[in-house]
Amino acid sequence: MQLVENAEDQINANLKQQIAEFHSTRSPDTLAALVASEAATTDPRNRIVVFVTSSGQSFGNAQVELHDRQIDLKQRDGSQKLSDEGYVLRKKDVAQGVLIVGESRAPINEIKETLAGVLFLSILPTLVLSLGAGVWMALVSAQRVRHIESTLAQMTRGDLSSRVPHADQNDDLSRIGVGINRMASAQDASMSALRQVSTDIAHDLKTPIQRIFVLLTRLREHLATGTPETDLVDNALTEAERAASVFHSLLSIAQIEGGSAKARFDTVDLAEVLSTFLEIYAPVAEDSGHRLTMARLPDAPAIVRGDRTLLGQLTANLIENALRHTTAGSTISLSVESDQQEILLVVSDDGPGIPEEERRNVLRRLYRLDRSRTTPGNGLGLSLCVAISELHEASLTLLDNNPGLRIEVVFSKPGGGRVNVSLPE
């Protein structure tokens, strides 16, 4: 039937083109002359072209009678016979009259007759039907298996909201899908409860730790400088400040994951954000012996939908991460690239990088590489970046910069589809 549809599509395209050729003519007399000239060289058994004026006068290679939506064709006196195969007709109101064009259905009928003959003469119709049914069932089953594999892959990457599409069938694949969905729901509920407990603990402990920090500060004011007690209080203040920072970061991640910031989304130019933070961190990088450069910016604004403050925090965290984990003399490059669908933000360095097997782990909360335990930080900077990326439906990826680390954040332009956070396997 595809051949028949192709033939019908071709005829309809031809008719549309023919109408377009006459449509630009506004004068009835001019159009009548054009139609008459065309009809004189056109065999009505193949193609019909007729123009009926508002007064009922007809020009063309056939006689036409219009009855509402019905078009009756008759042979014009002295003209060639019409086709016995029927016509595909189109009419259009133009130049204060009606233009009718048509093409014979002979090619379509020939295809149908040929197909009917092939089917009729086939000696293995049952085999063909059985084979078709088998292929169809195999394709449907393969598609369902792909859905299950896709759901499992997304769950492996941490997306516990993914589910296998429901199928109204009582078979093995359906039961497997139901089991996977039930397991995912249980895991999602457990993780949500765990996140909530973590958030509640962070919220409840943040205030007491802040009070301890204030009390230690007051105690420090009453101690003489250089005494052992003063040193102990200074160390306690440092640890209290680090603890408060951890709880503050945990609460920030929880708030971002809650999605409330989406209400503040507006158009943001990522290129402008990156340029601003380049100016802010350039002196810091210079003081620490680093070189902070802008590798590339698009000619036009790189517009995304998002929260400017959070996108600035994302940029700042990525820059600070590079400054913290590279040695003096290292170069940190920033860039923004844009195409028709996506905007790519990149922060790269030529430092020690992160081993491939550890790249997924460093995005976990409070996880730190062994070599990083002696450097400042709480293991939540990249976790916060992941949360901000997910909120903006962006993809954050850690790659090898040969040497060093390359962090890419891919945003969809406004109106684009969602991109899940992912890491290389």
TrEMBL record:
Regions crossing the membrane: 115-139
Main location: membrane
Organism of this sequence: Marinobacter metalliresistant
Gene3D superfamilies: 1.10.287.130, 6.10.340.10, Histidine kinase-like ATPase, C-terminal domain
A Pfam cross-reference name: HisKA
GO MF, any single term: ATP binding
PROSITE patterns: HAMP, HIS_KIN
Protein name: histidine kinase
Annotated compartments: Membrane
Reactions it catalyzes: ATP + protein L-histidine = ADP + protein N-phospho-L-histidine
SMART domains assigned: HATPase_c (SM00387), HisKA (SM00388)
UniProt-listed InterPro entries: HAMP_dom, HATPase_C_sf, HATPase_dom, His_kinase_dom, HisK_dim/P_dom, HisK_dim/P_sf, Sig_transdc_His_kin-like_C, TCS_sensor_his_kinase
Keywords annotated in UniProt: ATP-binding, Kinase, Membrane, Nucleotide-binding, Phosphoprotein, Transferase, Transmembrane, Transmembrane helix, Two-component regulatory system
EC number(s) per entry: 2.7.13.3
Keyword Nucleotide-binding in record: yes
Superkingdom: Bacteria
Enzyme class name: transferase
Domain Histidine kinase: 200-425
Domain HAMP: 139-192
